[in-house]
Amino acid sequence: MIHFIDDAGSAPWADLCEAYYSGNRSDVSFYLDQSSQAGGSVLELGCSTGRITELLADFGKSIYAVDPSESQLNFARSKIGLLANSDRVTLVQSSLSDLDLDSSQKYGLAVVPCFAFMSLIDSDQQQQFLNIVRRQLSPGGRLVIDLAVPNLEVMLGDPSTMYHHMDLVTENGDKIVVYTQGDYEEYSQVGYLKVAADFLDQSGLVTRRVVHDLEFRYTFRWEMYHLLRACGFEILSLYGNFEEGPYIEESDRMIWVAGARS
User: Could you give the percent of the chain with pLDDT greater than 70?
Assistant: First the structure.
């Protein structure tokens, strides 16, 4: 449930973000399908190191991709620069909590992938963000937001304990062990997370440790439903995975597909 939004632009954090999702393609077919259904160009908010940006562009989509981290955008620029149609992609540094977009430019689809919406830590920021996105969509345009389902283990976890989160294996066979330690404030629905990642070589020796602090906000199902409607959207679908399975009690993510109201 880690989001990658980083207004400070940490280079070590960008390295971890790139490793975290470098081999993950589970959501790309979903976003390709959504962009085909919506038509028009794509607005990607929270593009991180450009994983989704690159693959959508490779299929001929025109994309305006935004992220607050210059370090993460540098990874994205390297990927896009290798594409034959790199001129179809615009990469822009901007905070998600204070978006600065050209209101005359319209998009058929806006996507907020990889839990990036969770970096907006109060309802005013969320509403401002959604109102701006609504303004940027063409008539009939779509919005897709990927959210983590609020997790009781995270909410009730011991804030003094660092938990093992996951192991990653990089493309060159090295291993990254990720730990998290956090606290959660019920009143504000805001969590505070310390992420520690140990980079191990193939002999098991720790060669580097990255430590990063982030905040996130849990948004509950019906809260999100009414928030989207209040900001000018109609709910088209709510999925529990990228295979378009239904959102059920066991789902660990909410994938919202909403249409801009006329």
Answer: 99
Q: Which domain holds residue 68?
A: 11-149+220-260
DSSP 87: G
Residues 6+ apart with CB under 8 A from 150: 189, 218, 220
Give the whole-angstrom CA distance, residue 224 versus residue 227.
5
163 CA to centre of own chain: 22
> Do 167 and 83 sit in the same domain of this protein?
no
Q: What is the CB-side half-sphere exposure of residue 181 using CA atoms within 13 A?
A: 10
Q: How far apart are CA 146 and CA 47, in angstroms?
A: 13
Number of structural domains, the chain?
Answer: 2
Same domain, 208 and 92: no
CATH number at residue 137: 3.40.50.150
Please check whether residue 101 is in contact with residue 136, taking contact to mean a CB–CB distance below 8 angstroms.
yes
Model pLDDT, residue 122 = 93
Task: Give 88's DSSP letter.
Answer: G
Q: What pairing do the DSSP bridges indicate for beta strands 137-148 and 163-169?
A: unpaired
The 10s digit of each residue's pLDDT in 45-74 is 999 999 999 999 999 999 999 999 999 999
Residues 99, 77 share a domain: yes
For residues 245 and 186, membership in a common domain is answered with no
Band (pLDDT 50/70/90 cuts) for residue 1 is low
Question: What one-character-per-residue DSSP string does 103-119 give?
Answer: TT--EEEEEE-TTGGGG
CB atoms within 10 A of CB 234: 11
